[in-house]
Design goal:
This protein is an alpha/beta fold. The chain contains six helices and seven strands; from the N terminus they run E-H-E-H-E-H-E-H-E-H-E-E-H. The chain has a single domain, classed as Formyl transferase, N-terminal domain (Rossmann fold, 3-Layer(aba) Sandwich). It has a seven-stranded mixed beta sheet with strand order 3-2-1-4-5-6-7, covered by helices on one side. It is globular, with a radius of gyration of 16 Å. The model has no long low-confidence stretch (mean pLDDT 95). Bound molecules: glycinamide ribonucleotide.
Length: 189
């Protein structure tokens, strides 16, 4: 039975979707890099241990060291980044290559990279006049938002869309795509 850790920084709607799916029974740990609302969702789900390591207080190197100790202590097999906004050290990413996946709110390789997260992504998609956007679940590789794509879901960009309206349409797809991708990776679909 694979043991999964979910990493969060924000509201945690993707975490909620995972908890409510077949993936839920595999989640043994939730880690946040700030006082994220997502932590409360994890606690409300009852079965999940939560840890908060402040990126601000620790800095990137120590943050990764603390996280590594925690995931080792919990014997984690797979890390799922569900709206996690800190960037890892090369060493940490290399150690977890093939065992760490991320969800991004656009159709990578477009609209990815440093600074492309949350609202910024949807603003850029609208500003570029794209007719289509969506989400991408991918393995975390070298470089931000790089790595083998596991699955993508598409949505139209509509006339008059705001970053908020587009984000909501994409998020609805994220909540299906992330659990489906995790199940594929752990060989349960
Ligand atoms: C999601 O849209 C996720 O794709 C995005 O943050 C949001 C988190 O929402 N992630 C990134 O932008 C990473 N580059 P949630 O906390 O409600 O799951």
């Amino acid at each position: 039975m694979p043991r999964i850790a979910v990493f969060v920084s924000g509201g945690g709607s993707n975490l909620q979707a995972l908890i409510e799916s077949e993936v839920g029974k595999h989640i043994v740990l939730v880690i946040a890099d700030r006082p994220a609302k997502a932590l409360q969702r994890a606690r409300d789900a009852g079965i999940i241990d939560t840890l908060e390591f402040s990126r601000k207080a620790l800095g990137r190197e120590r943050l990764c060291e603390e996280i590594q100790k925690a995931v080792e202590a919990y014997a984690i097999d797979l890390i799922v980044l569900a709206g996690y906004l800190s960037i890892f050290t090369e060493e940490f990413s290399a150690r977890w290559r093939g065992r760490m996946i991320n969800i991004h709110p656009a159709l990578l390789p477009k609209f990815g990279g440093k600074g492309m997260y949350g609202r910024h992504v949807h603003e850029a998609v609208i500003a570029a006049g794209e007719k289509e956007s969506g989400c991408t679940v991918h393995f975390v590789g070298e470089g931000v938002d790089r790595g083998k794509i596991i699955l993508q879901a598409r949505v139209p960009v509509l006339e008059g869309d705001t970053p908020e309206s587009l984000a909501a349409r994409v998020l609805e797809q994220e909540h299906k795509a992330l659990p489906a991708a995790v199940l594929r990776v752990i060989g349960e679909s």
